[in-house]
Design brief:
Blueprint (H helix, E strand, L loop, with lengths): L5 H9 L6 H13 L9 H14 L3 E5 L5 H7 L7 E6 L5 H8 L8 E5 L2 H7 L5 E6 L6 H9 L2 E10 L14 H14 L4 E6 L5 E6 L1
Helix pairs in contact: 3-4
Length: 212
């Protein structure tokens, strides 16, 4: 997943805020018990998500792709007192682990966990307007998710999409279906006049989008 030099990555982690204890536990549990544990956001990316959330102090957050809840906690750190994060996960087998993780801190009452396909769950959230959206689910549908949630995001709100450098393949010679999907996503958003956008070379690439 990491596109940065490992020494640089270690240096960055050593010079940001330490990983909170409950997140260290989620990190460890994920690597011990779950396949594809590298999907976890991890320490440095987690602190970045936390920082962005705290900067805009969202009242409503939407996360598409909960996995084991690491990024969920990071995003929730910036919620207002009456704030909520709606997080959507398709894999029901993660339910027991997620419920266990969500009990680790006092933000449990600010998390609403939904299981199912994102498009269907969003129908039940039709009245919500989001300040921040984090998309980190099935990669081929990234642009579909972007279009699906766009009108549900307030002006000035953020949409964050993970893995957009796709292990460096988007700027390499590879031409497989997933790589082409990410190139198309990045290309289409780069010319979208409704938003301001910036790709950060963090882990596997994070696309930060601000709705005008």
């Amino acid at each position: 997943m990491e596109i940065l030099d490992p020494k640089l990555q270690t240096y960055l982690e050593d010079h940001c805020d330490p990983e909170p204890g409950h997140l260290r536990k989620i990190n460890r549990d994920t690597h011990l018990k779950v396949l594809k544990a590298n999907m976890l956001s991890g320490h440095y990316q987690g602190r970045l998500l936390s920082m962005m959330s705290k900067m805009i102090q969202p009242r409503r957050i939407l996360e598409i792709g909960t996995f084991t809840g690491y990024a969920t906690f990071c995003l929730a750190e910036g919620l207002t007192e009456d704030g909520l994060i709606h997080t959507i996960e398709v894999n029901r087998e993660l339910e027991e682990m997620l419920n266990s993780h969500f009990k680790l801190t006092n933000v449990e009452n600010k998390i609403r966990l939904h299981f199912g396909q994102a498009a269907l769950v969003l129908n039940d959230l039709a009245e919500e307007i989001f300040d921040l959206v984090f998309i980190d689910a099935d990669k081929k549908n990234n642009f579909a998710y972007f279009e699906l949630i766009f009108d549900k995001v307030r002006s000035g709100g953020l949409i964050i999409i993970d893995n957009v450098l796709w292990k460096g393949k988007v700027y390499g010679p590879e031409n497989d279906a997933d790589t082409k999907s990410f190139r198309e996503l990045n290309d289409r958003i780069s010319v979208d006049s409704r938003v301001e956008k910036l790709i950060l070379p963090v882990r596997d690439g994070i696309l930060v989008i601000r709705k005008k």
